[in-house]
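User: Hi! I'm working on a homework problem where we have to compare a predicted structure to a textbook description. Could you give me the structure for the chain below?
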Amino acid sequence: MIDAFKSEVINDPNYAFSINNDELTDHFYDASIHEYNWLQARDRKQQARYYGKMAFPEDTSSPSRTVMAMRTTSSREALIFGENNPGTYRSPTIREIASLMSFPITYLFQGNSEGIKYKLVGNAVCPKLAYAFAKEILKKEKIGLKQDFNPNSDKSKLKFDLTGWNSCKKPQNKHERANFAEIVPDMKYKNFRVELDNNKPRYTNGPIRWLATIHHATGKENMKVAEPSKENVLTMLYQFKDGEKINFFIKAIEEVFDKRIPCADTFQSQYCFVEPNKNLFTPRDALENVKMLVDRFFPKDEYEGVSLSNMDNEEDGRIIKFDPYDIPYEDIPIWIVAALYSLIHIVELTRSI
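Assistant: Happy to help. Predicted structure tokens:
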């Protein structure tokens, strides 16, 4: 459908008529998305804590997802298209989402901003769906169906055309106590995941406090969580047969993070600022580097299926104790334990200054 708007003569994707591209409204404008926003959308789509992965960018060969009434560029629900240049993304234009909703390409949306027009489209009933219902009702009522669709429209009657407009505005910084809670990317394994969060600071009056936690479950309501000590996680890591490899891994963690993780408040600012200090890691940078380190030392093709015992033989209990009750497994994948140790080290750095 998206390719329909790239020609000199545009064939309506839903109706059998064509127009010249200079007759098209609400389409030829800059709908690019700032990196700050599309990075958030990407992680919310592909690294969701409780849900599965979504395509990023959209798979334009598949049926469209729901068109929302709110134009958003940083949420899980955002429709985001890839551009020709790698690392650049855009929102669908009003004309594109209108066609996804089955509006004719000549339909005029009266509104003085992209947001208002987006709401008009998103709140509408798909015309072809409405037509199908109406057709069946008329058939039942034995009323004749009139085929009088007129594809023409008077472009001069449009009060505001988005053509030539630039919708890419610099995002605003987040609230200074904005919440952060994200998992180490692409590391959900056997229902385990490791998470970095800032303890929901907006809802407290206390200082910013970063936490490293391990989670296990398939849904929010069944979640088991633990916030273990570094000592307990080290106990598990050194069960691995190659202790020297663990030593190298720990050394690498220190080399990567020790000079680039700031105190808790500055780490919070790194998350909130659209333009953070490039010499320091943001929380998302930290998570991505944890993933790279774990992949470097414990590559999937070699360590898939390798787990470490969570049983404390001396105390006859669990090394990492989950709340509200323990998980049904006596071992934890080595990837997860290594990532957890990395995050605990990062959290300790935020508290050491």
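For your comparison, note the following. The longest helix spans residues 334-350. The chain has a mean pLDDT of 91. Good luck with the assignment!
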